[in-house]
Predict the structure.
Amino acid sequence: MIFNMFVKAYAKINLVLDVLGTRPDRYHELVTIMQTLDLHDVVEIDEAKEIELIVEGADLPAGPDNLAFRAADLLRRRTGFAGGANIKLVKRIPLAAGLAGGSADAAAVLHGLNNLWGLGMAASELEALGAAIGSDVPFCLRGGTALVQGRGEKVSPLPGLTSLGVLLAKPFFGLSTAQVYRLYDDIVEPLHPDSHGMLRAVCSGDVSGVVARLGNVLEQVILPMHPEIREIKEILAAIGASGVLMSGSGPTVFGLFDNKAVALQAAEEIKIGNFRVWVTEFNKPEAD
Ligand code: ATP
């Protein structure tokens, strides 16, 4: 089978993540700054009569339970497009990791099919469609560095930071985002990270200010339940990460380094542990 379009689906981390409250629709009101990484899945797309998905590199369903399939199906139904597509998804982003792998795939499919099918949908229309698939999809459609608010549908691009090296360490279990937020609701007085300070630091390109303000309110749910995540944070700090934090709803922890080469060197110091490691760096959105 020949695939004629390749789209990269980039993972993200959250430099800061705070929950402001619960909305009437029971979603959580978030304020977060997201940053895309160079780590990505690859989505290969070719025109076909029906929508068909093949998944390589992960044990994931290839039907409507897959966010990549759901994105294609929703786009076709909303636009009334008569054709389909063969989609091959090559997974590299770890699953249920707090890195928005599924949302990235959905965004890549929306972007790719909008072009392949010649739909001419505006970025704002794709984002609205993406929000119906998953909270992180609107951000994944844009990439780069952005302030994300609401349940994820309000995305404000921010100036890109210098490309830092990133070491990702994920324990051998995944976490359900929905369950993590349910557990968050039981915390009586959560400590909130300095999201305003982080926004100022990002806008002024102040890397040490960013590192000093890394914060994720959800660590207060996860760290007491999974002490190994605290241990991973300590290991990344000990091998020289300037800042360490759990990404999103976890369990992946990221460590920041001056650049990718330094992160690669640091990774060599890690002894085999109860986690897997990836080395990557901040990514900037590609020009269309
Ligand atoms: P987020 O940070 O957006 O909460 P996550 O990184 O924690 O996401 P994902 O890997 O995106 O989690 O996906 C969580 C679950 O969604 C998976 O365990 C899987 O069951 C389901 N899923 C559906 N489609 C995909 C896909 N294309 N890639 C990954 N997971 C998918």
